Amino acid sequence: MEARSVPGGGLRATRNLAEALVGESRFSDVAVYGPSHSRENGAGAGVRSFPNDGMQPFSYAFYGGLRNAITEYKPDIVHAMGLYTGMLATFLQRSDKPFKVVVTVHRTSPPRFRILSRFALSWLSNRVDHATFLTRYQADYYITKVGFTPRTWSIVPNVIPKKTIDQPSVARLRRDLLGETRCDHLVVYAGRLIRSKQLDVFVRTLSVLRDMSYRVGGVIVGTGPEAYVSSLQKLAVQLSVDKLIVFAGLQERPEDYLAAADLVLFPTLHEALPNLLVESYMLGRPVVMSAIAPMADLVKDKEDSLVVREHDPILYARAVRELLTDKALYERIAESARVTYARSYDPFVVAEKYAQIYMSLLRP
Predict the structure, then answer these.
(1) Conformational region of residue 357, where left means phi above 0, alpha means psi within -120 to 50, and beta covers everything else
(2) pTM for the full model?
(3) Cα-flanking dihedrals φ and ψ of residue 47, to 5°?
(4) Residues in CB range of 59: below 8 A, 6 or more apart
(5) What was the pLDDT predicted at 15?
(6) Confidence class of residue 41 from pLDDT cuts 50, 70 and 90?
(7) Which residues contact 290 (CB under 8 A, 6 or more apart)?
(8) C-alpha triplet 41, 68, 351: angle, nearest 5°
């Protein structure tokens, strides 16, 4: 279950996990409590949906909807995507209808809701049956700094499903993008357009590459606050790289743009477990990534990515140029990225980890 009034990353993780559990035949009866009005995030085959469309998470309607879903469905396990939903689940536990509670932490910053004080988190820590964190960094942060100290926990990433790529369509898309930017190479970003992603650095990096007499086109996929998107477009004009950048907006298949590009440029300031990174690994697209603490155990410099130590467009440009001029390095990183995805993020691998957690909780 996911505490959002609109679809978000946690909801995608919830849907993907439910569908992977059913698809791998580990569980035949799975339900999701969360928004359902987005086609992309609708429940898949074999997954029952209890919609909470339009409900504000911190409301009686949301709590009542969850209570009704649990009463009707009678789950053996409630898997809460977030501490807030984990707390609601523990409130609804009854001795005559027992169920186990698993909580997944999705943030690498303090909880969204003020109700989750250190006292409340201590209370929750003693009542959840198991907690999962997306990364080692996140576990350390929540246990040592936030005060969420579950008795048993493990590190399990989100399920980010494999994407089927239609190669002829992607080849046409690449030709169109190269033609529009009049460049020989493409770098891409796909995701939310917000300040913490540092897309101004993305734009400035293209300017530096142009000054190096190395024409590289940029593609920015996604949407965000209108004022921020406008500021990026104005910056591109100021730096005279507006002709080199395509603002593609929201796309139903952003993975096609990743596949059409040569590499991914990701100068972010703050992440938990970014879909962009994992999908890039899946597609074998090298990532030029910022060196931020939450990513320390997710990226390996010159193995499955290139890591830039400072938020400097010149350094990002040099890393991009290195990948595009060193074919052996490019191929080595691309292959290592694919191996990383298969080893750590393949939906079957992640679903199996959760299946083992669930079964351990259900044993007498």
Answers:
(1) alpha
(2) 0.84
(3) -115, 120
(4) none
(5) 79
(6) very low
(7) 198, 266, 267, 268, 269, 307, 308, 311
(8) 45
